[in-house]
Amino acid sequence: MISEFIIEDFKLTSGSKTLVKTTYQQFGKALGTAPIVLINHALTGNSNVTGAQGWWSAIVGDNKVIDTQRFTILSIDVPGNGFNVNSDYTIKNYKDWQLVDVAKIQVRILEYLGVNELFAVVGGSLGGQLVWELAALKAIKIAHIIPIATDWKATDWLLANCKIQDSILNNSTNPIYDARLHAMTLYRTPRSLKQKFERERDEDSIFKVENWLSYHGNLLQNRFQLASYKLMNHLLTTANVLRNYTSIKDFAQVISADIHLVSVDSDLFFLAEDIWETYIDLCTEKDNVFISEIKSIHGHDAFLIETAQLQNILKPIFETKTHEHNHKHHIVWNR
């Protein structure tokens, strides 16, 4: 069931005040009867994490790795993400927003639901950046922080590509379609496209890779709003958990949760080397930090494609006893 949450006069980090309308969903066990897992969606995602239309049904569901028969699953829509097409939900002043604002709204919803402790917070890409932001607020006790194919900061590479996306979204005559074409080349890799298409053409002599890009451009254009795309792309650029910390090492000293980093070795969006650098920085200050790496030719989207590998990475975390964590269950892959 989709539930609505409204904040009448929410103060953004930028200083402006705004009406916030968003939605959230609950799956699995009833609140108060089981450990709670919060799942954050990525740029074009939403709170539909499981079920027939669920974007993460391979991972979340009955007898899946994140088992709805064992856990209460919460997923909160980023305000303005387009899941509700009602114009009241649209955010036009997108550059006033920061990802930390979304994390603060998550805290408000969790407090409203009476949740003060989470077994895990997990998310990929933008959703993983939001995992970091929520942890940095220290408003909710979290046992496991699981950011996937993401980092705690917006790198120069990410900022550069989001700038290109923003320019396309604000200047193109076909903005969603054109921006998606550019984005798909970041989410995959040259090897992935070579394996998939091998320079083949269709019956009209059009390269199949071009048809594939057009398909994804049209698909997103048919289900996504321009205002949502502008907002979500902008939020990627605002990730930075060091607002209240002097360094990532300082952050590590005050976060008690187990931190499970998951990189993708071929990721061209959130580079694996940056995530491994974060791992090394955290390990100098904190023992309960772990890293796993998805091996794939498919790049950033591998966190959605390589479900078998991700299941193997997440399984030891979600099979542990909820209050007695045994570190020997962790998979840690070293380069």
Automatic annotation (TrEMBL):
> What Gene Ontology molecular-function terms does this entry list?
homoserine O-acetyltransferase activity
Q: Which UniProt keywords apply?
A: Transferase
Instruction: Report the residue ranges that make up the AB hydrolase-1 domain in this protein.
Output: 35-285
SUPFAM superfamilies in the cross-refs: alpha/beta-Hydrolases (SSF53474)
Q: Which domain of life is it from?
A: Bacteria
Q: Which InterPro entries match?
A: AB_hydrolase_1, AB_hydrolase_fold, HAT_MetX-like
A matching Pfam family = Abhydrolase_1
Q: Name one GO biological process term.
A: homoserine metabolic process
| Annotated protein name in UniProt | Homoserine O-acetyltransferase
